[in-house]
C-alpha cells in the first residue's frame, strides 16, 4: 500500500510499540490519528527536529466499553489504515486473577478491537480500499502458564484476522496480522512484575520496539498478510506441545 496521503488510525499510541509506531509514522506524508484513551495521555513522537511529515491529530479512542467506543468513533472517518494496537495485560495463576482486570483485558484486546474494526470497515468497503492491522502475539502460540487470559485474547485476535481476511477476499480491503514477540515496553514490564513470583523474566526477550515498528510499517507498505517475530520469539512458534510442557514444568512454579 502506498501510504502517501492516507489517513491512519493508530490506537494505543502513547506507549510501547504504539508510541514507536507513532514516531515511525510521523516521518511519513500521512494524516495520523493518534489514538489515546484520554487526550492528556498523548505523547509527541520522538523524531529528529524538522523530520515530521505527518499531519498528526491526537484523538480519544477508549476501548473500555461499548459506549465509550461509540463515543470515540464520532468524527474519525474516513480511515484508510486501522492499526489495532491498544492492549491490556493481566497475568498470574487463574485463581489469583483480579476479575475486573480479566474483563478489562478481554474487552480492550478482543471485543473492543472487533467493535472498532466493524465501525471503520463499512467506510473502507464503500471506498473499496483500506487495511486492518491487528496486533496478535507470540504468546498465543506458546500457551505459557500464567498468561492464559492474555494469550486467549491474542489467539482470538489471530482467528478474527484470519476469518476477516477470507471475508474480504473479493474486495480491495486487506488485513495484516502482526505476531509480536518480546519487546521492551511498559506492558512487558507489567507482565514481568505480575509473573515474577512464578518465573524468571530475565530470560525473556527484550528487543527494541523501534525496530519492530520499522518492520510493521514495511509490512503495511508491502501488503503482507502476516508479520512473524524475529529472534527467539520466532523459534517459539515452532515449539511442540511436549517440549513446551517440559519447559513450563522447569521454569514455572505455582
Describe the structure concisely.
The protein has 254 residues and is of the alpha/beta class. It has 9 helices and 7 strands; from the N terminus they run βαββαβαβααβααβαα.
How many E-type strands? 7
CATH domain class:
Alpha Beta
Low-confidence stretches: none
- Roughly how many Å apart are the termini? 47 Å
The biggest sheet, with number of strands, parallel, antiparallel or mixed sense and barrel status, is:
7 strands, parallel
How many domains? The number is 1
Helical residues, percent: 40-55%
Percentage of residues in DSSP E strands: 5-15%
What's the architecture, going by CATH?
Answer: 3-Layer(aba) Sandwich
In the CATH hierarchy, the third-tier topology is known as: Rossmann fold
Architecture blueprint of SSEs:
Blueprint: E1 7-10, H1 16-25, E2 31-36, E3 55-60, H2 66-73, E4 81-84, H3 99-127, E5 130-137, H4 139-142, H5 148-167, E6 173-180, H6 186-195, H7 209-221, E7 226-227, H8 231-236, H9 241-251
Parallel strand pairs: 1-2, 1-4, 2-3, 4-5, 5-6, 6-7
Task: Give an overview in words.
- By secondary structure, the protein is α/β, with parallel strands linked by helices.
- It has one domain (7-251): NAD(P)-binding Rossmann-like Domain (Rossmann fold), CATH 3.40.50.
- The chain is 44% helix and 15% strand.
- The protein contains nine helices and seven strands, in the order βαββαβαβααβααβαα.
- The protein has helices at 16-25, 66-73, 99-127, 139-142, 148-167, 186-195, 209-221, 231-236, 241-251, and strands at residues 7-10, 31-36, 55-60, 81-84, 130-137, 173-180, 226-227.
- The protein has a seven-stranded parallel sheet with strand order 3-2-1-4-5-6-7, sandwiched between helices.
- Helix 1 (16-25) packs across helix 7 (209-221) and helix 3 (99-127) runs parallel beside helix 5.
- The relative contact order is 0.14.
- The mean pLDDT is 95.
Amino acid at each position: 500500500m502506498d501510504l502517501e496521503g492516507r489517513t491512519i488510525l493508530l490506537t494505543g499510541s502513547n506507549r510501547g510499540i504504539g508510541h514507536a509506531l507513532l514516531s515511525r509514522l510521523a516521518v511519513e506524508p500521512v494524516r495520523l490519528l493518534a489514538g489515546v484513551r484520554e487526550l492528556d495521555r498523548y505523547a509527541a513522537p520522538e523524531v529528529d527536529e524538522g523530520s515530521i511529515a505527518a499531519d498528526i491529530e491526537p484523538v480519544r479512542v477508549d476501548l473500555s466499553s461499548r459506549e465509550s467506543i461509540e463515543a470515540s468513533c464520532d468524527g474519525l472517518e474516513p480511515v484508510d489504515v486501522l492499526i489495532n494496537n491498544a492492549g491490556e495485560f493481566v497475568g498470574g495463576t487463574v485463581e489469583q486473577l483480579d476479575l475486573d482486570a480479566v474483563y478489562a483485558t478481554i474487552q480492550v484486546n478482543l471485543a473492543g478491537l472487533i467493535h472498532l474494526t466493524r465501525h471503520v470497515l463499512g467506510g473502507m468497503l464503500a471506498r473499496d480500499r483500506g487495511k486492518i492491522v491487528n496486533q496478535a502475539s507470540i504468546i498465543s502460540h506458546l500457551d505459557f502458564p500464567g498468561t492464559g487470559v492474555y494469550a486467549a485474547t491474542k489467539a482470538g485476535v489471530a482467528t478474527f484476522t484470519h476469518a476477516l481476511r477470507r471475508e474480504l477476499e473479493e474486495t480491495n480491503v486487506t488485513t495484516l496480522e502482526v505476531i509480536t514477540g518480546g519487546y521492551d515496553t511498559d506492558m512487558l514490564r507489567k507482565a514481568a512484575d505480575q509473573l515474577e513470583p512464578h518465573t524468571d523474566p530475565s530470560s525473556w526477550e527484550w528487543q527494541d520496539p523501534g525496530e519492530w515498528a520499522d518492520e510493521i510499517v514495511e509490512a503495511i507498505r508491502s501488503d503482507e498478510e502476516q508479520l512473524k517475530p524475529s529472534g527467539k520469539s520466532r523459534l517459539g512458534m515452532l515449539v511442540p506441545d511436549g517440549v513446551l510442557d517440559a519447559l513450563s514444568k522447569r521454569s514455572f512454579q505455582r
